[in-house]
Structure prediction request, 316 residues.
Amino acid sequence: MQDYAPPRCELLPLPEHQVAFLVDGEERTRWHYGAEYPRPFLYPLNGPTSGTSLTRMGHPGAENHDHHRSVWFAHHKLLGINFWGDNTEARIRQQHWLVYEDGDDQAAMAVRLGWFDGHDPQPLVEQDAIIAVRPLADGEYALDVQCEFRSRAESIEFQQSNFGFLAVRVAKSISGHFGGGTITSSEGLVGEKEIFGKPARWMDYSGPVRVAGEPGRTVVEGITFFDHPGNPRHPAKWHVREDGWMGASACRDEGLLATRETPLRLRYLLHVHSGGADATRANRLFDDWQNWPAWTVVKSTRPHRQYDLKQLEQNG
Prediction:
């Protein structure tokens, strides 16, 4: 028998429609796609030192924001249909998992999501989402999120809205209002009033969190959210709130089209880090990220596999 060492980064499918992202055997985040929720999401996003989640489920003080589930895909207006809130028949459902790819440098999951209006049994849009966890130094890690949106009709418009496509609800203690956190942009701006609606290459939300299993110990950790230079209208204008959420508003000023022949491609990066916002660190990672491969899903020619990830041309 040949010697075999499990790869450093692994995906672990779990009961109840969940998939854990592991680095060195420790869970970093988890994908939830059960039908009890209107749309899939990632929770927790565990801090590199604290071991506790830097995100939360829902708003700390407003029940009407329960659709804020940690890290999630959504959009407010698609053919006038609200895919953002919970008080609607619209749903985003995982139709298939396509690829679970482990490795020493990263583990990548590809899934196919359908955007359903609640009436037509066929989706309005199919979304292929590729989410890769990549370990960095000192227990930090990045989630590289790549999406292709294809219209079932000849074309479809994601309409003008502040809300969409990827959003993050941070933990209460990291919130600027409910906790001791700070929002900082790549342009050196700080706080909701200075940042809201302004373009930036990245956005950071950092603050104090308690360390799991060590009573009385608190550390500062955070999440830097990057908008890729290949995205339409980069740098994005940001919707940020002192109550604890941030999102890159790709359609803030006008809508975006997806077609059958030319999918809408978007790419984002979440860096889960120790300490507060660090512009030098963030700018270095932003530059490095542009050299990381972009992927698409293709039929596999390898045995015992249905699909593979195929590298696109740089920034494709």
Summary: The two ends are 41 Å apart (CA to CA).
